[in-house]
Amino acid sequence: MPVRLGDDAPDFEAQTTQGPIRFHEWKGNSWAILFSHPKDFTPVCTTELGAVAKLKGEFEKRNTKVIGLSVDPVESHVKWEQDIADVTGARVNFPMIADSDRKVALMYDMIHPNASETFTVRSVFVIGPDNKVKLTLTYPASTGRNFAEVLRVLDSVQLTATHSVATPADWQDGEDVIIVPAVSDEDAKKRFPKGFVAKKPYLRVTPQPNR
Ligand code: BEZ
What we know:
Elements: E1 13-16, E2 21-22, H1 23-27, E3 31-36, H2 43-54, H3 56-61, E4 64-70, H4 74-88, E5 96-98, H5 103-107, E6 122-127, E7 133-139, H6 147-162, E8 165-166, E9 177-179, H7 185-191, E10 197-200, E11 203-206
Helix pairs in contact: 2-4
The structure holds benzoic acid.
Residues 38-39, 42-45, 119, 141-142 line the site of benzoic acid.
């Protein structure tokens, strides 16, 4: 079964490079990013894990824990981490799930048989403090992810979780946002004291409310 937006993120027990975990317990009340890789000792994945390790501070600022997954054993992950450090200059500073039996991959629908029968695709799940799935992304094995985009969507889902706003195309943190149509103009005047501009009756723009 696919794991879709708004679903409960399935809980699981797994071996990781930082010891055994139960996912929900490990995550606690934080936000979390669970992301999968096709295979250890592969080139694109090597660059991705280094890139995520370098962003640790950015994820921490957003109260977000990061956990990776691939369908190889812990010993393999640990050996590979040395290569990642050699190539990218960054030590992997988050747990990597060793999903050799594909239990978690199948639970989260990370194996897309028409892409590969054996390897996981590049999935990203953003999971909220309430353990609900807030965002999913799927990339093919041949395309490395843009982790600046992952931070950008994290900013959007965190903002829109607590304010009645949506973010426009290509929005970046700090830019104007859109008041959701369910809020009346009268209500919007109260909720958004910085004011708003109605470009159309259904497209009202206001400065980012948490700035
Ligand atoms: C890679 O990470 O480089 C990769 C993995 C599987 C297939 C193609 C590329």
